[in-house]
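Chain and backbone:
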Amino acid sequence: MITSLAASKAYAATGATPLSLGKSVGEPKKMDFGDMLKSAMTDTVQASRQAEHKIAQQAAGKAELIDVVTAISSAEASLETVISIRDQVISAYQEIMRMSI
């Protein structure tokens, strides 16, 4: 099971930042949750494709096994991060739905 700390470390490894510079110098533009989630999904798909590519290269004898294992581990970590985020969003939604008006 992935922890919040592991998820935040995996997200930090993507290089994304919550605040990115806007068009004007010094004008910060906040990254919203949808953009952050889209970035995490894109990174996960890219890591999975890279792992598949490394597996194909290794099967053809053109890649080292350690590179394949590293690519698979990276893809797995990205997927676990996205799943953890999904689970937290669903949990928050269910909690909101239980609130009385």
Q: What stands out?
A: The mean pLDDT is 82. The radius of gyration is 18 Å.
